[in-house]
């Protein structure tokens, strides 16, 4: 199918009715590749460009006594579309994120899209990368040298090649090359790089493979520049005399650097190693003894694709070496590894992905090893094997394998990986992430919507133009480069794959992004007091892990494991299926131990985690947690049974979170509040702040939606909460019976995650209670915010002392003897529009403040009023809008009846003090041109001065 014949939107698929078929999911056994007949693709024609149902779409099974509806991926996407178009956020999010549909649990079975025997595929072979350890640079090309090396070009990533050597610190056997201190000497071509390795600097306790500044300086001053002087005497005059002088020259006025590059002709390149060693040895740089070069060519698979035949492999390998300027002499003298890839694509332009249960078969075939060995290195508990779930699906995943000596097979494979090419559209290396990613800090800063919207649109666009391929790559010694992955068994790969219409494949991810974006948006609109609870913050913390794992391998480092245990459903350890786990755990009888291996095999164990920890240390990121971690504030008691007898897993085919509580006017959160918060270390890893700081940094100032800074200055204080008076009427209003109740339930301290906040107290009870509380609090707050004169020693504008201010009531604002309240003020009679405007600013319909607003953010009543308005209007229902109008109507009537005078409230400040001699009178006539509080007298009333 060509691009133009597809849907214009992956979410515009017209859903077809479910074909209710009750059948069990039958996984393929390792020793049986016969595809059951009921797995064949239905021959349903594609009408109106609608993706066809591949096989039976829905069935029902009993899983440990629980009735579960099993859906194909097509049906899951179609049902997501139906619920989304129904404009019911709660049902949509619960279906997509929890797998709940009208109270029933669903599970997703992607194996129903197993590739058919007759599916026509294209198979191409290629050479993607080349790595060589050599003593001399026998290259047929000039290289561009950076006198000051870019630290980002330092080799830090594991290349799965090892080197043994002796230095001043002892004998070192099979050291990972990326652990040896190194620098980038230069580049040639678009993708090619030369690094210098310094085995003499290696120590087991050295945690950084970069050189320090003293080592960089010694290399340039005592090695590189003297070598260039010998190789190109005239050209060396343009090289900076010292490393420090290049640093000085490169630095601009604003502190940025612009470093030079120099070209060394290809006639001189083969002699660089010899001259470098001579210069460094002659200048007593002893740590440079034994230096060698690492040549790297990467990312060139598109330039040399060929048929997977022996002849094509031989011809293409020779062309590859010539095209990249690698001489025969270099190959003969060095240790070279080449990455050989096999890429499978669908002629019908479907998206392909690897089945998890295919790893054993593909690895066994590619490495040409015994079944028991292949089984050992494709188990989740094996130190050789890393599984990469695709699109949150347990049954669909790639993998990465470092076989070790005993499992490397006849081709001596150093590394194997199976993956899909669709990751290319989100590839963006940054820190220890390899793809586009969202952070918890960005969510708290309310930047998540832009990211989610961009990711959602990317998936939509990809459904029309990107048809994912499946790849298997191996890193082998170059002597086997033209022998591995040739004359392949196409049926083996057909049986290893699932295939999906791109509209379905990309819509799966798009709907998952949309669902979590909805959750985050609902949280962002909720009152801060609800967002800051542990169960709501835990749901927020789940977002980066969930969203980033759609297109990258879900993080399972120590901090992420702490998070995973809190956000995914748990199952009994003894009943857990290893293939449904996100990281290796002991699960009783299913736990497997590797066969006894040699020393190299043992050294490989934990290498990926070691590299991740090294990377995090270099990025100042703490990602480790242990039993000594302090549990955060508001811990909840776990149920009496031992929770460590349970493990998190993908129980229903795709990642579903623990049940989410969603309800109109409430902040989404996890339903089970008994689950404790993550450890402090994990919390900081996710949000880049501590739990105790979140309220202050992110939630207190959210009344100001237009301000760029969300922090309230520390010098400001909030008004005090009003103390009820004895014998005062409990209610001043009677509207509760006339408007719909949309307030939160009354706070029950025994059931709440936190003690009730002061806002909770103001908003507790029915509408009449709330409006009464807010009204009485407003009288106190308005009085408390009367400004002072400039200067700490000058007297205040208000003559009331602290106790009198705390005792104000309605009579205070009915007293027209202004001198009993003010030392000085400006006053005039208000027009009707001015009086109404004052009410609108004190009791706004939309409480959004400009960045420089004063007074309002510190008043308790205004903060609680903002929450009240959000509760009434966040869903836009007509009855809620009516409720707000009625509430404001009774407040305005009360305002008009009570206030004989009021502050001349402005949008930016409650108390306006600019001099207004032309229109206003004032108590102190002699200060007519000075600032003083401006008040309005209600029409029909007369001020007494």
UniProtKB/TrEMBL annotation:
It comes from the Eukaryota. Residues 595-612 have a biased composition (Acidic residues). Residues 589-637 are annotated as: Disordered. This is Uncharacterized protein. It comes from Hypholoma sublateritium (strain FD-334 SS-4).
